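Need Exodeoxyribonuclease III's 3D structure for a figure. Predict it.
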Amino acid sequence: MRIATYNVNGITARLPVLLHWLEETAPDVACLQELKAPQEKFPEQAILEAGYQAIWHGQKSWNGVAILSKHGKPEEVRRTLPGDEEDTHSRYIEAMINGIRIGCLYLPNGNPAPGPKFDYKLQWFERLIKHARELLSSGIPTVLTGDYNVIPTEQDAYKPERWVEDALFRPESRATFKKLIDQGWIDAIRTLHPDETIYTYWDYFRNAYGRNAGIRIDHFLLSPQLMPRLQAGGVDRQVRGWEKTSDHAPVWIELEGH
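Structure prediction for Exodeoxyribonuclease III:
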């Protein structure tokens, strides 16, 4: 079972890229972030014609998350992160697919930091940690994937010293990510490739992709039950080089069995 995550950076503008990638790689499940489209503007028909059924949580101009499945319509569990009824951002959606619970998330960027946006990032992160703890205690095999907007370690950045003041790499962000991992989650990509240089995002400026000046911020966290099923994982790096593409590349894992 191949599960992928992809920050599309605007599903309307990137639809040809998304459809090309789906056709080329055919993941069983695809989690999308940054749809940047209201609920009614999601291209459901085009996704259906590509062989996928979907659930999504849209928002005009910003955010937005979706889960696509080749195995029937995802069975939606929730479409907001608990803990703040005032939070209107479309950043989380959760579904059951083939006995696996899949949470698709788009964690706040948090810049400029310090400031209100960084405070919101850390508050959202703490809500995620609380929910993730409940997911683990349920005993249901779970995948938490998406754009975490966190560079976990210096190994995950081309020039970490340039990111020191950025919300993605500030000590508070990294410590909170570690707090989440320490609940018992497995960072699938780093577990599979402990020593490799792996990036998932390259800025549009200064030929970052051409120089491989990237960062790793799109992550797969697996509950312990799934670790024995983890077969492979990687980044579809070539997609970042396509015309009119997102600044992120898709990330994927393969789990044994359907």
